[in-house]
Amino acid sequence: MRVADFVADYLHRQGVSCVYEVIGGMITRLVDAIHQQGQIRLISVHHEQAAAFAADAMGRLTGIPGVAMGTSGPGATNLLTGIGSCYFDSVPAIFITGQVNQNEQKGNRPTRQLGFQETDIVAIAKPITKAAWQINDPDQVPHLFQQAFQLATSGRPGPVLLDIPMDVQGSEINTTQPGTSAVEQLSAVSEEVFNDVLRALSVAERPLILVGGGVRSAGAIPLLRQLVDVVQVPVVNSLIAIDALPYRHPLRVGLIGTYGNRWVNLAVGRSDLILVLGSRLDIRQTGAAVSAFKAGRVVYHVDIDEGEINNRLQGCKPIVAHLRPFLTCLVKAASMRQWQDRTDWISEIQGLREKWPDTHEVQVPGINPNALMHELSRISKPAAVFVVDVGNHQMWAAQSLELNDHQRFITSGGMGAMGFALPAAMGASLAIGMPVVMIAGDGGMQINIQELQTIAHHRLPIKIVVLNNHSLGMVRQFQQSYFQERYPATCWGYSAPDFSKVAGAYRIESLSVSDNRSLPAALEKMWIKPQEPFLLQIYIDVSANAYPKIAFGHPMTEMEPFAKPLEMECT
Fold first, then answer.
1. Which of 305, 380, 422, 543 would you label with 131, given CA atoms 20 to 30 Å apart?
2. pLDDT per residue over 236-270, tens digit each?
3. Burial status of residue 190 (CB atoms within 10 A of its CB: 0-12, 13-18, 19 or more)
């Protein structure tokens, strides 16, 4: 069996249903092998970054590593932003790059390059992968592919890169399949630790559970929901964990952090205990005043990655554990206890929510972006996934989308990559075969706009919602705060097209709307044909800011526009 044929067969046996690629000379053997095998769909996109983001979404939704391929040189380097996105957001993925023949590689020669497009992608990718290998021995291919899939999915998930020279792809190897992967050894947590956590939760008057993306990565969302129903502790979530609890769950509080719902940050400020599950507690969650986040409360921090605990936030009670077995044991132990009534604490939080509704934070002419998210949610019940790009619209979506029990929310968190949503929506749609809502701003939409052709070619049921404020709104808001309202590159010198007309060029039905009176009918029209793509352009006033926002340097309870930053933000 040739190496290329082995790769095609092995990917299929691991449950990979799609491979995203841009064809290039050094992956033609691999593409041809996958084509001839016929069990995996080749999705030919129009930029390798899009292939990487599509694979990212596939890994998030299925738990099976998403797979993207690129040729040597620019094909490989174009994958890097998507690789980094998978690494920072703990997404299982396999990236396969073609490399020039071994006799065309520079080796130790004192030259920059020998073969055409020769690039040391392994060295470049190592800091943002769990592993990156160039395979020069054909007989190592079965073992390294097995190891790659095991690494990508075990522990804290993440991407693995395999760089395969063209001559190796064509080499013959033994067809013996690799053995079964070793079972991952998970660190044990003592009964004393479980009892300590439960005892603290039971005596706390105003406890909260903070859920991060690690709960979803661990496949532990059902266990989290069981725990919450048993202990009756309200839940706040990070950006990546918007879908941890359905919107209507009585114990769901909302988004924490820099752009968190005001009532959520105020509730955190009043809490006396926080159980943190799978969250990094980065600056976007705690704010810059880290000591204020910890003051007056006990924090238990549970994470599989020991390096994330007591990192920025000191003085936490550390619990290094895989969240699935940890929550399994915690739910079992919690079910054997009696839990106090939390009605007063839950009512207090609800009172904060009623005092500070999300739809009153932004006062602008025309369409209110937070109100829009509520309306979009109500009309988009057929959607299985909401895929959101990066910018102010991302924050409005995180603050106000109403997700049902079966609906997922995905976005680029740690990397924060504009241009993520369109290709990720393709990956999501192909992963689950159901309609997807994609939300982007005019800036992010233009970064991977070429993938409208991929959507049109496959007639993917993606409802593309573009919030067009003719600016790069999040940075424009930054300039408003710190640069005396000078707007180079965000408003001045920046422009956006009429996306409705662009959609027409790709044979995608579209509509534009700019006022509240026309909005309901436009949203209805988007869903007349649920299985067809549709682009809805919604004009938002350029002055619309993402509020509330922690006033930099203040505790998280002090938020703009009422509080003002003490200094310029550093992130």
1. 422
2. 999 999 999 999 999 999 999 999 999 999 999 99
3. exposed
- Beta strands per DSSP E along 374-461: 385-388, 408-411, 436-441
Q: DSSP for 222-262?
A: HHHHHHHHHH---EEE-GGGTTSS-TT-TTEEEE-STT--H
Question: Are 144 and 179 a contacting pair, CB within 8 Å?
Answer: no
Angle at 240 between CA 54 and CA 318, to 5 degrees: 130
- Spatial separation of the C-alpha atoms in residues 23 and 98, rounded to whole Å: 10
Instruction: List own/partner pairs for 179-183 with CB under 8 A and 24 or more apart.
Output: 179/146, 181/146, 181/149, 181/150, 182/150
If 0-12 CB within 10 Å is exposed, 13-18 middle and 19+ buried, where does residue 290 land? middle
Exposure string (b/e) for 89-98, b if CB count within 10 Å is 16 or more? bbbbbbbbbb
The CA distance from 343 to 405, in Å, is: 23
The answer to whether the beta carbons of residues 237 and 244 sit under 8 Å apart is yes
Residues belonging to the chain? 571
The whole-angstrom distance between residue 150's C-alpha and the CA centroid of its chain comes to: 21
SS3 87: helix
**Cα gap 47→136, rounded to integer Å:** 27
- Tell which residue, 303, 282, 129, 150, has the closest CA to residue 215: 303
Measuring CA to CA, which residue among 138, 40, 36, 120 is closest to residue 80? Answer: 120
Question: What secondary structure does DSSP assign to 345-388, as a single string?
Answer: HHHHHHHHHHHS-GGGS---SS--HHHHHHHHHHH-TT-SEEEE
Structural domains of the chain sorted by starting position, each given as residue range(s) with its CATH number in brackets: 3-169 (3.40.50.970), 191-355 (3.40.50.1220), 362-545 (3.40.50.970)
Look up residue 22 and give its two tokens: 């841009």
pTM over 0.85: yes
Cα–Cα distances in Å, from 561 out to 97, 363, 480, 564? 48, 11, 12, 7
Token digits for 113?
């390059």
The two beta strands, 273-277 and 462-468, are unpaired
Helix/strand/coil for 133: strand
pLDDT at 218: 94
**What would the two tokens of residue 162 be?**
């395999």
Burial of 192 (0-12, 13-18, 19+ CB in 10 A): exposed
Side chain identity, residue 165: P
Beta partners for 14?
none
Burial of 235 (0-12, 13-18, 19+ CB in 10 A): buried
CA max distance for the chain: 73
pLDDT tens-digit readout, 279-320: 999 988 998 889 899 998 999 999 999 999 998 899 999 999
380 and 409 in contact (C-beta within 8 Å)?
no
Nearest Cα residue to 550 out of 211, 120, 259: 259
Helices 3-13 and 28-37, packing angle to 10 deg: 50
**Per-residue pLDDT tens for 105-127?**
889 999 998 889 889 999 999 99
